[in-house]
């Protein structure tokens, strides 16, 4: 079996995903990288060797290099524009999440992928995280009955370092952190619930980081240059992005198309960093106590249980690789999809629904909590992707 030739577009903070696709002689190899910045070029050579072809634009990659698939690892605001070029060329495309920062762009990507019969895969790696997969298996087993409600609390202890020192802090480039961070959790909520949000309302605020006056243009640096876990409290942060106009705390209420009610809370100035999901069925509930390998999922199935006294405990499986082993599994699924097509655990329609919920949730927050209806993916498109893009 010849190696798939993989082109990588963007070699910044998420570049390590591409390293999982670089297994020369074992099925796939990165054969060209496109990145306009010198730092990206240096990082690419460090990852793949001095001989790796590097170009500055997507156009150069498409014009001068034959590839079997591409991985788009650019900043969020560039996802749609790049994907429309690669899909337009008929190339199987991995697009990092969020799929885009506007609903119109996500729908254009879906429509073009169908028109060109170009396979589209979105990097929702949490569908491959052991904690999520194990919670999904419990739900699907019927052990807690029919799901009626899901609550998710996301404590983003590294929020100041991760999202308020570069472009993530700007609405024009990220729209809202309900996309960059929330798209993960909204997608998981949808997956566990078996439905998509059709109505959303929210409240939120720029409560902390907007008051920090120490600012710097960090476009010449990457996160590893400024990350410092010893900075505390969040008001002590320095060198934040010159423009900060996204919320650092957000809370959403969601009504799904199957009647499930859900809530999502995200805070970027907590000391701890983990996600907590509670799934409530009509015969029990589950809740994860931590989201990493070796942490626990608690299961309540009787009225004899109580706080700290679940009826059963399931330990989160250990796996190698980033995000609890999710990243290598994500890339492996994409590469198999490039070769064989078919239905994958990651869903392009679900990725679009996560973006749409985040976008309209952010609009609700900025409109004083006004509820917004979330438009569904057109049925013809939904059916095409749900059937495996055949």
Q: What would your notes on this structure say?
A:
The protein has 390 residues and is of the alpha/beta class. The chain has a domain at 127-326: 2-Layer Sandwich (Dihydrodipicolinate Reductase, domain 2), CATH 3.30.360. The protein has 14 helices and 15 strands. The strands form 2 sheets. The protein has a 9-stranded mixed β-sheet with strand order 14-13-12-11-7-10-9-8-15, covered by helices on one side. Strands 3-2-1-4-5-6 form a 6-stranded parallel β-sheet, with helices on both faces. Strand 2, helix 2 and strand 3 form a beta-alpha-beta unit. The longest helix has 18 residues, at 348-365. The chain is globular and about 65 Å long. This is Oxidoreductase. GO terms for molecular function: nucleotide binding. Residues 132-287 form the GFO/IDH/MocA-like oxidoreductase domain. Residues 4-124 form the Gfo/Idh/MocA-like oxidoreductase N-terminal domain.
Labels describing this entry:
single chain, 390 residues, alpha/beta, Dihydrodipicolinate Reductase, domain 2, nine-stranded mixed beta sheet, six-stranded parallel beta sheet, 15 strands, globular
Please provide a brief summary of the model.
With 390 residues, the chain is α/β, with parallel strands linked by helices. The chain is built from 14 helices and 15 strands.
The total count of strands amounts to 15
Residue-averaged pLDDT: 96
Distance between the termini: 23 Å
CATH class label of the domain at 127-326? Alpha Beta
Strand content: 15-25%
Largest sheet: 9 strands, mixed
Uncertain stretches: none
CATH superfamily of the domain at 127-326: Dihydrodipicolinate Reductase, domain 2
CATH architecture of the domain at 127-326: 2-Layer Sandwich
